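hiii, so i know i said id send this last week but things got crazy w the move. better late than never?? heres the sequnce for the chain we talked about at the cafe, plus the structure i predicted for it. fair warning i was half asleep when i ran it
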Amino acid sequence: MNNATTGSEIRLHKNTPPQDRLVLAGFAAFVLVLSVCGLATGAESGYAQDLAALIGLVVGVLMLSEAAFGADELWTIAMDMVVVKKSRPFGQPNVRFIRREEISEIRIDRDKANPTCFRLALRLTSGDRLTSPPLPEVTRVSETTAQIAEQLGVVDIDPPANPLDATNAEMQLGEPVRPAIGRDIRIITLAIAGLCTIPYTYKFWNDLPLATGEIIFLLVGPVVAFLFFRYAHTSAGSFWIVHQGELRVERLSRDGGPCVDTITGSDVDTIAIERDSKTEDERYVVRIDLLSRQKFLSPGIGTLDETRAVAAEIALRLGVASERVRLSR
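okay and structure toks below
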């Protein structure tokens, strides 16, 4: 994805690189081969296997269609006009000119699945609804919204609340931590541990031997349960509040009490970004290494570009020199 504001025009891009299309097509072909092989041996397999093969066939066809025919979009917002261009790997580009008088409603929507993604939504007098590619730089949503309003001659467009916007007096990353999260994890841990004792109680009561796996679990299980119980509150994560010249990190101690760290620019060794290990999605976090060798990881932010923008704004507010900011991967 590549977004840019050039001159008096605002351009919003959504494109899929050729290498990504090839990877998706290759994976789709693999799924299709497995599905066809599964259907070919349908007489020897059960109903569940046939159903799985059919689902795989449908999924493979959809992925292959997206790889081959998925459209790239370019929205150009100029004075009193929006130009929407859609292009596919095969075929001619489709260009649509939308004049200001054709637009009955203009708003900025926040993506429910990705709270760091904002899009321009248009409702036309014809009844059509159009949604743009994401707005550039999550830290500049208010600024981009004001530029869009100026280009389209709208008095004002109120964007949804954006805790990461650079115009805010304080930037907020994540949600305020609550002791209730740690208590819930401890309750669930105790409940699971209690359920796991039932099979052992039954075997001991009936004087039955334990299998090797059960003996290993009997030794390892209590240790794992203890660790989950002990560090339940610290697993609630952290809440970052970035002021001008200061970063406040709020988290919970192991006993559930509030713990606050205050970081200034003179404390920072480096600011970098890294992949969020807590999710399988392509999400990234900001990592701050202090001169004291302490490391802080932010809550999950979003895509690589979004996280870079947030990290750059944090470095700017803390006054960290550019040579200590590493935004490339």
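btw Residues 179-205 form the longest helix (27 residues). thought thatd interest u
miss u guys!!
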